[in-house]
TrEMBL record:
<keyword id="KW-0067">ATP-binding</keyword>
<dbReference type="Pfam" id="PF00005">
    <property type="entry name" value="ABC_tran"/>
</dbReference>
<feature type="domain" description="ABC transporter">
    <location>
        <begin position="4"/>
        <end position="251"/>
    </location>
</feature>
<dbReference type="InterPro" id="IPR003439">
    <property type="entry name" value="ABC_transporter-like_ATP-bd"/>
</dbReference>
<keyword id="KW-0547">Nucleotide-binding</keyword>
<dbReference type="InterPro" id="IPR027417">
    <property type="entry name" value="P-loop_NTPase"/>
</dbReference>
<dbReference type="InterPro" id="IPR050319">
    <property type="entry name" value="ABC_transp_ATP-bind"/>
</dbReference>
<dbReference type="InterPro" id="IPR003593">
    <property type="entry name" value="AAA+_ATPase"/>
</dbReference>
<keyword id="KW-0813">Transport</keyword>
<dbReference type="InterPro" id="IPR013563">
    <property type="entry name" value="Oligopep_ABC_C"/>
</dbReference>
<dbReference type="GO" id="GO:0005524">
    <property type="term" value="F:ATP binding"/>
</dbReference>
<protein>
    <submittedName>
        <fullName>ATP-binding cassette domain-containing protein</fullName>
    </submittedName>
</protein>
<dbReference type="InterPro" id="IPR017871">
    <property type="entry name" value="ABC_transporter-like_CS"/>
</dbReference>
<feature type="region of interest" description="Disordered">
    <location>
        <begin position="318"/>
        <end position="339"/>
    </location>
</feature>
<dbReference type="Pfam" id="PF08352">
    <property type="entry name" value="oligo_HPY"/>
</dbReference>
């Protein structure tokens, strides 16, 4: 079993526009822990920084600051060489993540061999079939011979999940694993992830914009806005009793499985179309204050993390430090709150 600690993770990017070069902070001082058998959901809109967090954990991006530490049950730190044995990623687009020229067997046999999980051809073939059976792809021998284009989107994502398990991973980062799948098969893939987690005691980071599935499949939820975690807590508590104005708006818009709902949400938040925003990371105040219905003068100074309940934290000036709301109910921030 592996525990993964993310401490103070920060990522800056450079942007060039003509002769001008600027920097923006995509991820700002994010910390959390992934423990065996538990799922943490990272929730937020496009541009919130959640996928950048995933890419840093998967070592596809290098952090500007902070660290990611994987630890074995005996307390020893997982070194660079073994890191990928322990931590694997499931990407959003199962078609792009699989090479169209190779068979399913090739995709699964490769990590098995690379990570020394099998000995010889027969052992590899048998293990590939076992992996396919674990993700409910049967008859396994037949599926193993196919290429990605001969599979449905759901089947391809199941192959991607099997590939993540092939090296014996104990930490799985699932970045929007069902958002590109047909609505009718999303639940099946999420249930599969949940079953595998129980069977293998996996630590899972589930990245999504969908609060409804985040609540159902996670133990803890972290809400990100413009690179910062603005609220965190037990999944039920964050969804049923959201405290940050941004979380309240998100919760009021959930469930949100379709693109038109996302557009409605973006409209409600006054956000630019997806992919069109850049984020000023050096902004000293609350990043949400331009759109917050409860913004106050003091919000021009960066809010601190405040406990508002057992394991429930929020980064907002509405909470003076003792968990009380500094504003009377009905001032606008409660308008979007679910009944
Ligand atoms: Fe709104 Fe101020 Fe809280 Fe930011 S700190 S969410 S602007 S009330």
């Amino acid at each position: 079993m592996t525990t993964l600690e993310v401490r103070g993770l920060t990522k800056d990017f450079s942007l060039r526009s003509g002769l001008r070069q600027s920097r923006f902070r995509a991820v700002d001082d994010v910390s959390f822990t992934l423990t065996p058998g538990r799922t943490v959901a990272l929730v937020g809109e496009s541009g919130s920084g959640k996928s950048t967090v995933a890419r840093m954990i998967a070592r596809l991006e290098r952090p500007t600051a902070g660290e990611i530490v994987a630890t074995r049950p005996d307390g020893t730190r997982v070194g660079d060489r073994d890191y990928r044995d322990h931590v694997q990623m499931v990407f959003q687009d199962p078609f792009a993540s699989l090479n169209p020229f190779h068979t399913v067997e090739h995709h699964l046999a490769r990590p098995l061999k690379l990570h020394g999980r099998t000995k010889g051809r027969e052992d590899t073939r048998r293990t590939v079939e076992q992996l396919l059976e674990r993700v409910n792809l049967t008859p396994a021998a037949d599926i193993a011979r196919r290429r990605p284009h001969e599979l449905s989107g759901g089947q391809r994502q199941r192959v991607a999940i099997a590939r993540a398990l092939a090296p014996g991973a104990r930490v799985v980062v699932a970045d929007e694993p069902v958002s590109m799948l047909d609505v009718s098969i999303r639940l099946g893939v999420l249930n599969l992830l949940a079953r595998l987690q129980r069977e293998d005691d996996l630590a899972v980071l589930y990245i999504t914009h969908d609060l409804a599935t985040a609540r159902h499949f996670s133990d803890e939820i972290l809400v990100m806005y413009r690179g910062r975690v603005v609220e965190r807590g037990p999944a039920d508590e964050v969804i049923l009793n959201p405290r940050h104005p941004y979380t309240r708006i998100l919760a009021a818009a959930a469930p949100d499985p379709e693109a038109r709902d996302r557009d409605r949400l973006r409209e409600a938040l006054g956000l630019e179309p997806a992919g069109g925003s850049t984020l000023p990371g050096d902004d000293p105040g609350c990043a949400f204050r331009d759109r917050c219905p409860s913004a106050m003068e003091i919000c021009a100074r960066r809010p601190e993390d405040v406990a508002v309940g057992p394991d429930h934290h929020v980064t907002c000036r509405l909470y003076p430090g003792d968990g009380r709301d500094a504003r009377p109910a009905g001032d606008g921030t409660t308008a979007g709150r679910p009944a």
